[in-house]
Amino acid sequence: MKQGVWENEYKSVENLWGYNPNHVLSTYIDIIPRSGKILDIGIGEGRNAFFFAKQGYEVEGIDISETAINRCLQLAEKYNLPIDTKVGDIREYEVKKDNYSLIILSNVLNFFSVEDIVTIISKLKTGLKENGLIYINVFDNEEPSILKAKERCKQVAEFTYYDEKNKMYHHYFTQNELEDLLADYETISLVRSKFLDLTHGHPHYHSTLEILSKKNETNLIIGGDSGGKRVK
């Protein structure tokens, strides 16, 4: 099961993702409304959640790994940060309508089928308040690990591979695909990065896409691209 895979990942290292928040989130914190909660999907040990809790935001998060959630709660208690956490799968999680000022999906969507990805994003959009933002960080189609996926998994669609042993998908995003998921929102930031990861295992490279997009009534009416700011 996918849950078992992530349990093993979190148990294999002391901290899987490091302690610093995603740079795009910390850069644009001033435009995130304070009128709603923050939902961190795939909260892990809490690096993004802790950052926003320290700024006074009300944060809730879910993760499929019980080990990750327990570690997150221990750190939250240590630093006296009130964070509401739950072990769960986003496909089954109740997302309250018009409730969140920011929804975070960092290193989450790559492990679902294309159909599930579309359903998840549609579900999350209903949870965002007016002027709320959604942040997505994914591995793109130039990610080096795609070579392992091609060797070990069954290809089921373009840039999508299914790991039959662990019952999980590996999907690698194109820039157009990611933009299309949020085509009805204003793009605040779109970043493509290649970097050396030293946080776990042997040093290895990653290739990622990050997008931060804003929900507002104008976008929903005209359904389109209002020329949001992009950072390369």
Automatic annotation (TrEMBL):
Its EC number is 2.1.1.222, 2.1.1.64. GO terms for molecular function: 2-polyprenyl-6-hydroxyphenol methylase activity; 3-demethylubiquinol 3-O-methyltransferase activity. Keywords: Methyltransferase, Transferase. It comes from the Bacteria. InterPro entries: Methyltransf_25, SAM-dependent_MTases_sf. GO terms for biological process: methylation. It is an enzyme of class 2 (transferase). Pfam families: Methyltransf_25 (PF13649). Residues 38-132 form the Methyltransferase domain. PANTHER family: PUTATIVE (AFU_ORTHOLOGUE AFUA_2G14390)-RELATED (PTHR43861:SF3), TRANS-ACONITATE 2-METHYLTRANSFERASE-RELATED (PTHR43861). This is Class I SAM-dependent methyltransferase.
